[in-house]
UniProtKB/TrEMBL annotation:
InterPro entries: P-loop_NTPase (IPR027417), Ras-related_GTPase (IPR051065), Small_GTPase (IPR001806). GO terms for molecular function: G protein activity; GTP binding. The lineage of its organism: Eukaryota, Fungi, Dikarya, Basidiomycota, Agaricomycotina. This is small monomeric GTPase. It is an enzyme of class 3 (hydrolase).
Length: 215
């Protein structure tokens, strides 16, 4: 017992030297933000990105950033929907906005096949800039209300999402159909990813503490 207490005291002293105080660990574990999260809209012109953003926001702080607070599983979550249309025209700004994004909405128009064919390229671009294999994104086929103008089937969109390993939705920025489920899905995925990060950080600290205790 005396030996165990001695090791505990040694561990505390070592930890204080490395982190400044025992409180540092607890505060660090809760440092990950629960919001605001940046959801970046990526896609060709005229697919409905701006209208989509306005459907899901209560405040537009700038022309290309739109804010919203929603309740996810009992927790209030703030996010920004960032419309990349301006950055698409200014290539040097696009990497910056992608790096600042926490999740991505890759959007095409169900009435324009060319916009659907560009999705794979956008996905590759996001993954290349983020350098994160676990980057969160969904594929959205917008303008599903224009049935008589459809050029891309629901099955094609779902197949592409399966290939890229993400969720798929068809939406209408005009009627609001399925717009909120897109945002809620990404918010839940971000929440789960945040939990995994904090859990991993805890176990890193625990492993460090255990190593010091046993040395």
């Amino acid at each position: 017992m005396i030996l165990f207490i001695g090791r505990c005291l040694k561990t505390i002293e070592c930890f204080k030297k490395n982190s400044g105080s025992s409180y540092h660990m607890a505060s660090t574990l809760h440092r990950y933000p629960k919001g605001p999260w940046n959801l970046v809209l990526v896609g060709d012109r005229s697919v409905g990105k701006t209208a989509f953003a306005h459907q899901e926001t209560y405040d537009s702080s700038t022309e290309d950033e739109h804010r919203r607070v929603i309740q996810i599983d009992g927790m209030m979550t703030e996010f920004r929907i960032v419309d990349s249309r301006a950055y698409r025209e200014c290539c040097e700004e696009l990497p910056h906005i992608i790096r600042s994004g926490h999740a991505f909405i890759l959007m095409y128009s169900t009435t324009q096949r060319i916009t659907f064919e560009d999705i794979v390229g956008y996905c590759s671009q996001v993954r290349r800039i983020k350098h994160d294999p676990d980057t969160l994104f969904v594929i959205v086929g917008n303008k599903c209300d224009l049935v008589h103008k459809r050029e891309v089937t629901h099955r094609e969109g779902a197949a592409l999402a399966d290939e890229l390993g993400c969720n798929f939705f068809e939406t209408s920025s005009k009627t609001g159909e399925n717009v909120q489920p897109v945002v809620v899905t990404l918010a839940r995925l971000l929440k789960d990813k945040d939990k995994d990060k904090r859990r991993g950080k805890f176990w890193n600290y625990f492993g460090r503490w255990w190593t010091l205790l046993c040395c």
